[in-house]
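Run log, item B.
One chain of 158 residues. Sequence copied directly from the ordering sheet:
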Amino acid sequence: MISVLARRAVQCGQFARGIRIDRSLFPSINEEDLEEKYVKGGGPGGQAVNKTSNAVFLKHQPSGIWVKCHDSRSLESNRKQARKLLLTKLDNHINGENSIENQVKKFESLKKAKSKEKTRAKYEKKREEKESNTDDTDKVMTDSVKIDTNVVPKEAND
């Protein structure tokens, strides 16, 4: 899904460097359009979880999209979470590529690609500097190791 930082940025409606999420197409839900049921939960927790009706089943009547939420043992927090999940699902269904979740994914992928390109350029620059330094040192070494042909070796004088 979406990372925690991206989710927080979506809730605030802001991103760095002036990039903003287009929230104009985000759907709103009328309470009359919802069918809400409280059903028994399941999963780990044993009898305490299985015998209480704190799982929320929420259905949007016009679109037929439904969500079941049993994240906690609290009915109220499950209701809030179910509405958030339903809004996200409805946004993805109605807006598709322009949904908030997809906009955040695009932003994150662009950010990651930019970071990779920056890293690649940094190492390319280091490699070029290293090559130019080795060329300079080779040139200096060949200049300093010139052999003077006019000097006669001492052994030849004896």
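Observations after the first pass:
- The helical segments are 4-12, 47-50, 75-95, 100-144, 154-157.
- Residues 16 and 136 are 43 Å apart (CA to CA).
Flagged for discussion on Thursday.
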